[in-house]
Write a structure and sequence with these properties.
alpha/beta, Rossmann fold, N-(1-d-carboxylethyl)-l-norvaline Dehydrogenase, domain 2, 2 domains, five-stranded parallel β-sheet, 12 helices
């Protein structure tokens, strides 16, 4: 089975590394010093589930040399998806299956608009990992979980084949839900309010969940996403709010969300694909989203500054 990893960062590096460790034919699409380090020394992964190394590793910055592949795992930030789409084009053939693992709920439709709905699954993942250095991935928290499935709710040979590959990989929990849309929206309901309020308050989850004022706003933001999902005919249950809050209550007090860390670090973030998407989709569905709208509008000036800075950066 040929698998291309588009986005060889903390998450893509880990999942791709585990597949390669299990014997699958994996190629990483990377660039810069990260790419050069992998080509020289292989891919090093330090993990709470056991350290490992993939050496030699197949990695390139020229997808045209790869040819058509069976699967493409798209593991980039949502704002990087347009560039990722152009990167993927030479590797997409008639039998290629694309698995987006981005935060948010819009990536499958964006990919379908370019490559056709028949090639795109729904998907999500969960873990805490990062690039510790060139060619070096560090998995520091949460058991790695990957979830994917057909968007028409049917079981298929291609889904089972990929599930079997991940089942053979160490340190990965793979799930095929009955409804991938519900799974994606349930994660969306969790991460968008958490990341948004984390960035807005500049506080870790321990502070946000313990103050009655911010805890109430967090739940209200989740309620808006629940109502939006139902308006879009997604069978999310209200209990998903309780599950999301229970998850946040169980986190270490100092825990922060990835979008929060990007915004506070002055980097481009997934604001548009998270709280911005809630506002945008809410308008389409005539669902009021005042709390998410407040988060989005308040963080937008800093987001715009980060994007201008990135554009003007000579590097």
């Amino acid at each position: 089975m040929n698998v291309a990893i588009v986005g060889a960062g903390g998450v893509g590096g880990y999942f791709g590394g585990r597949l390669a460790q299990a014997g699958e034919d994996v190629v990483f699409i990377a660039r810069g010093e990260h790419l050069r380090a992998m080509q020289r020394n292989g891919l090093r992964v330090d993990s709470i589930n056991g350290d490992f190394r993939v050496d030699p590793v197949s990695a390139t910055d020229d997808p045209s040399t790869v040819g058509e592949v069976d699967y493409i795992l798209v593991v980039v930030k949502s704002w990087q998806l347009p560039d990722a789409i152009e990167t993927m084009r030479p590797m997409v053939g008639e039998k290629t299956t694309i698995v987006p693992l981005l935060n948010g709920v819009e990536a499958p439709d964006q990919l379908s608009g370019v490559f056709g709905a028949e090639r795109v699954l729904g998907g999500l993942c969960s873990m805490i990992s990062m690039v510790a250095g060139p060619g070096h991935i560090s998995h520091v928290g949460a058991h790695p979980m990957i979830t994917f499935g057909e968007r028409n709710h049917r079981r298929s040979e291609r889904v089972e084949r990929l599930r079997n590959a991940f089942s053979r990989a160490e340190g990965v929990q793979v799930t095929i839900p009955g409804d991938i849309h519900v799974a994606m929206w349930d994660k969306f309901l969790l991460i968008a309010p958490w990341g948004g309020f984390g960035a807005l308050t500049r506080a870790p989850i321990g502070v946000i969940r313990s103050l009655p004022e911010t805890r109430t706003l967090l739940e209200q933001a989740m309620e808006e996403i629940y109502l939006l999902a139902r308006a879009r005919k997604v069978s999310t249950e209200r209990e998903s709010i309780n599950r999301a809050m229970a998850f946040l209550d169980a986190l270490p007090e100092e825990a922060t969300a990835s979008m929060q860390r990007d915004i506070l670090g002055g980097r481009p973030s997934e604001l548009d694909a998270q709280n911005g998407a809630v506002v945008r989709l809410g308008k389409e569905a005539a669902v009021a989203t005042p709390v998410n709208g407040m988060i989005y509008s308040s963080l937008l000036p800093q987001e715009m500054q980060a994007r201008r800075q990135r554009t003007s950066d000579p590097g």
